[in-house]
Amino acid sequence: MKKRHAIIMIVVYVAAFYSWLFLIGNNDSVEAFGTRMFSLAGGLVSFIWIRKAAQGMVDQKGRRFWFLLTLGVLSYSMSHLFLLNYQVLFQVEINLNIAHILGVLAYVIFLTALMYLSYHLQRNKLRSRFYFNVLIFMTFAISVSAHFLIKPTFDLIHESFIVIVLSRAYPIIDLAIIFVMLHIYYLYSRLKQKWLLIMMVGFGIQVIGDTSYIYMLSEGIDHIDSLLAPFWSVALLLIGLAGRYAKEEGSTLQWRIEHFIGEEDSVIPYAAVLVLVVLFVSYSNVSSNPLAIGLGLTLLFITVRQLVVIRQTNSLMKKYRYLAHHDPLTSLKNRSRLQTDLKEYIQKARHLNASVGIFLLDLDGFKQINDTLGHHVGDLLLNKAAERLKQSIGPDDRIYRIGGDEFMMILPNRTEEGCLNIAEHITEQFSVPLSIEDYDIIITPSIGMSLFPEHGRTSDVLLKCADISMYDAKKSPDKHYQLYNEVLNNMLVRRLKIESGLRHAIANDELSLLYQPKVILATRDVVGVEALLRWEHPEYGVISPAEFIPAAEESGQINMIGGWALEEACKQLKIWHDRGFSNVLMSVNVSVKQFQHNRFIPSLKQILHRTGVNPAYLELEITESIMQNTAQTTRVLKDLHAMGIKAAIDDFGTGYSSLHVLKSLPIDTIKIDKAFIDDPSDVKQQALVRTIIDIGLNLDLNVVVEGIEAEAQLDPLLNMPSVLGQGYLFGKPMSKEEIIPLFDKL
Ligand code: C2E
Ligand code: MG
Ligand code: MG
What we know:
- By secondary structure, the protein is α/β, with parallel strands linked by helices.
- It has four domains: 3-250, Rhopdopsin 7-helix transmembrane proteins; 264-322; 335-484, Alpha-Beta Plaits (2-Layer Sandwich), CATH 3.30.70.270; 497-743, EAL domain (TIM Barrel, Alpha-Beta Barrel), CATH 3.20.20.450.
- The protein contains 25 helices and 16 strands.
- An eight-stranded mixed beta barrel has the order 8-9-11-12-13-14-15-16, surrounded by four helices. Strands 2-3-1-6-7 form a five-stranded mixed sheet, with helices on both faces. A two-stranded antiparallel sheet has the order 4-5.
- It binds ligand C2E and magnesium ion (2 copies).
- The site of ligand C2E has 23 residues, from strand 9, helix 17, helix 18 and strand 13.
């Protein structure tokens, strides 16, 4: 049955119930019989719904909660069954007692279920405080009820003592239910779960029914049962309906709410005392025993509660103070503590004319370990690294974990030499592998160091200096530590300016292309050109792409810059082709990041379309590092081939290429790096170049030798047919106008 149907059913049920009561009029016994039957039917449906909800819960706590409610509804319905029995047979007195006991039991079970829910919804620390509140509230409710409800109504009905007491227990438990329900709703309201709201309304209606009952009873109104019976049944059905909703929402029920109880709930006990005092004073002339006892007990509970709260607050404060200044993983102090400590150390050193060393340490390749071996291993590694760092420093030194794999150290009274010694010592310590579970991991630190007062007088400046130095240490794999110096700073400033300047380079027309001729070595005939980027920086003049391309890659601007170079080269090639130099080949460099970008092929297609260039004359140069991701590389290379564009491996021999991979990739050209021909007297190197050329030619690839500057470098290569060359010997990179005369032979 759908939820909507369930709601319609409840509406029809209420309408039928009241219509029936209305139609039957004053026939007491028939009316009572029907009332019980209706109540039983309502209870049964509710029972089925809630039982289903209990079965549908994925977690044990959810199942238990709904199971308790099932018991409650069962008990409630059983009580109606006994009442029915009593009314039909009309003489068995004992059944009335059992009916009341079952009724109260149902209420107690409902209360227990709600307490169970609220118990699991809040944090351990706050539970006891909440139960004190319930206790105080109950004491309050019982003493007030005892005074105002139970005692005076004793004479009203002529039932057994147990029935009277039990029937007066309803409103008291009602109050507790309302209290707990409000509390749950308060904890839970942010989750906006419908079932909870429906259940609130259900219990609310039940309480309204009970209260009205008491009121009508004391006012001597007749036919209370017939007016109110539908209330209780609807209450049960709504609790059942809540079960239907919870079956869907409840499978994701979040049992622990990280939600602080505000100060609001602390008001309740004090309000209770206040009311009791007022009542006690106003009614002290009447027999006020229950009120006095209630007041005394409430005061006692409040005192105990207060002591508990104070104790909890203290321990919470301690914990939060610790957490605010410590890293929970390594138990080292954290960044926020570093800020305050560093300021203090500097202040002290300033007074004493002493020095302070600041170390920033980062673990090389930590991210890779974390990604490949998992966060668990990563966490253990950080812990072991922290241990090792602690062992490397002196008793006066301080160590902090400031994030991810970054640590910071404050070393008071250290000279430059002292700092370098410690850095060396740390590096040595880390050369021993860390054994973590089944792995022996060697992880090297990169340490940047700065010194107070030499490199700066404030903590901010010193931290920045350490940062710059670490950045520098990280750049070269064989350098593990670096002390700050002025040159480093200039480098950083330059790099930052380059990064920010790149953004406007295209718009400001600061980029241009130069073209370097590519020749057949044996004849020196020009067959094509390589486009090389230049940037005329407003402050630094012409900057080499070797410097700004990495900056563009890191700052994510490479696609824009590289795209510009590609389009410009294609435009130029089209112009040359149209001017009759129809055999010119154009090589354009493409960065790995650009090559691997998912928009690379589509934007290349657009460029071809816009410029109208013949793709057969276009070659893209990619460095060997693309080999690391062969699956994707192969895909892009195949796309290029499908478009008729050629591909070359640039700087061949310096990177990762294995000849095996080369064979399997759709490559057209290899460009042997300049480093292989630098020294023409090196016989071994010559042999190596020859071998690479041979393999390349055997694989049916074009081979280009790069960076030929002198005739001597050329000689050993001359007897190799069809090898191409590039270098200052044949022509430096030049402007589009300057290169035209070289095309004449084409
Ligand atoms: P590359 O692709 O290996 O280019 C060859 C580099 O060697 C060029 O440096 C060129 O000027 C230089 N060179 C050529 N012949 C000689 C020689 O005989 N002796 C010496 N010492 N050097 C020679 P350049 O122009 O500074 O470019 C450096 C690198 O920047 C290029 O290396 C290439 O990887 C990259 N690059 C250049 N333009 C672009 C571009 O448009 N996009 C991308 N992504 N990278 C580019
Ligand atoms: Mg190149
Ligand atoms: Mg090259």
